[in-house]
Write a structure and sequence with these properties.
By secondary structure, this protein is mainly beta. Among the domains are: about 70-225, no CATH class; about 230-310, Sandwich (Immunoglobulin-like), CATH 2.60.40.10. About 10% of the residues lie in helices and about 25% in strands.
Amino acid sequence: MEKAHEMRARAENSVKKTRISAILLFILCSLFAILLAMLIVFPEFASVSAHAAPLADAPLDPDDPVFLSIAPNTGLVELGALADASEVYEQYLTVTTRTNSPQGYALYLTMADSNTCLRHEDYIAAADYGDSTPCASVPAGHKLLAGDPTSIDTNIWGYSVDDGSTYITPLPFGSGSAIKATSSETSAPGDPTTITFGAKRGPGSANALAAGEYSGHLVMTAVANRPPAPEISSISPATGTAGTMIAITGANFNTAYQVQVGGADCTSAAIISDTQITCAVPTGTVGTSEDVAVTTWGGSDTLTGGFTYLPPAQDLTEACLPTSFAAAGQALPSAAQGIVMDLDPNMIPVKYTGDTTAPQWQTTPASNIPNAWYDYASKQWANAVTVTAASLAAYQNTDSVTINEADVLGYWVYIPRYRYQVQRCGTAQPAITTPTLFNIQFENKAGAGYEKAFPADNGDWVTHPAFTFGTAELNGIWVGKFETTGTAGAPTVKPNSASLKSQTVLAQWNTARAIQSTHGLSGSYDTRMARNSDWGAMAYLASSAYGTGVASGNEPGLNGDASEGGVRINSNTSYATGCGPLNSAGSTATYAGGTTCAPASDNVNRSYYTDLGRFASTTGNPYGIYDMSGGAYDCTLANYAGTVRSSGLTSDGSGGFTQIADKYIDFYPENATMSNCDTVAGGSFATCGGQALFETAGWNGDGADLVTSAFPWSIRGGYYNNGAAAGVFRSFNGTGSADTIYAFRPVLSLF
């Protein structure tokens, strides 16, 4: 069973490879060949941008948005003397057209009318050329080039286009037909087309033309092709408040110049592709469902009631707190935001002073709050580094000293003590299927009136369980900014490094414990592996107004804004820490970027500080936590009823383990499942509340599996190849064995 489960956990990484590698290689080679051919034949494809484009310019005349010009549009074509049946007389005429229609135009050539004929000079004098009925006096034996097309041999009169060939295409009668069409917009000085007109004797038939001079009256016309009308199929999200970024999906959006909700223009509108537009909805009336309309050069389309306005999110103010909490005088967010910071004297507080092209961190005094060191309201979470013993003195108690990356042993992010408003009090209550921002209030463990009671109903407030450690109450926890890197004997927590994998749970525990000494922390600091409750504390803070929110990290439509929309996947196949997604449009596709986070295919850097790297942060900026979606799986100290399996641990015979004290582990009772972990015998809200389990099960499509007797150890976040199933709410299970896709995250606590 254990072996079978490990194979299941790694199926996305290895099982399918042997069956599909040959097919993938063939497909990739074929696609590369096609792309190379396109770039050679159509070099313009090489410069096409994948980024969002602004809306098109509005046409001068919305009723007829495309213009077209043609010169000349009529012509009296005169030919020389026709000497014998095999001879072809040609006259070249250049027609110039121009249109602003993205779909181009069609050019037509027709006989002028029923009075147009192929005329012989001996019978119709030059003075008669202006006669309104010149064909009436054509003598017997000479055919009219009008009326029934079958009455004259098609080899007598015709045309060719552009190539100057002496082959004469039969000339159309009546309404004519397209002889040239473009598939794209043409610009000044136009799109010249050379048309060759000609006449020749028939092949010894009654339709033979007599020798002499001939002429014919022709008409050239052109019609601009209007772009196809837009079609709206869906809106996502379909509900929200003013300013909500929506993605409009449909077809034929390339020439869109107006996007409206409820008859008012959207802001920040952008054309993502021919099938998607994004914009921020304008102000509307709460409770109303408004029409969403897109207007293009090809027309307009409306999705009736496509967007519904919701009430604004509840403010985190005293009014929304329980009465007992407010009455007790607990500090609300203010300049210091009610946060109590625990900082080991050998940890260096830092601020980010780099940009999106080069990282840089500098020291800052711990007293520099808010803003200088941290400002959670602005999604600037407190960061600190641990450094080598040799460099420690150069950074302690300094301001604006640049940190040398070679000196850094670990990057750490502080999760302050907080309470949150419970959205689902227990598994017996209805599941919250739509991801919703967590209301969070920072608190002081020493403040009078903070509540430790567990909630009785949805809407109650509860101190997050991560801040209760055995019998101790914590002001906060420091968590690894990245997955653990380095080696078992010299662990680090650094970006652009391979995460430390292939360890049993016991080996991961010993590695985490070693950080206390190898990073030079004081004896009052405790280092350990993250529990599920610690993971939940990170996930809920990220899913609040203080983080990137709760929208799926894999959805497009954020218009390049990494600060909203959820934590996106680190899909680097090298398990490199701190890497971002493939692109900003929501792709979960993997890429081989190495530890530089820059694949050879495009050489675009996706490291944590870059525009793309920030999408994988819990804050959408360098101050957040990384590798919570994708990268490697994060093993957590959360276990099913003291079950050992392949963890390397030893049972103590009482539901625990001899090597690890119970306070370091979140335990679940026997027969616990995701749907009953709070009600099964021995379970309660305290058993699994706050751990991003039953409260958030299924959010954003993240996989949700609780531990079992066969697979008793919890693993979180998914790994790089999990696609949309990876995310901060992802929970899975394993046997605790060493595996090439399993890493872990360290946590520091001050007692």
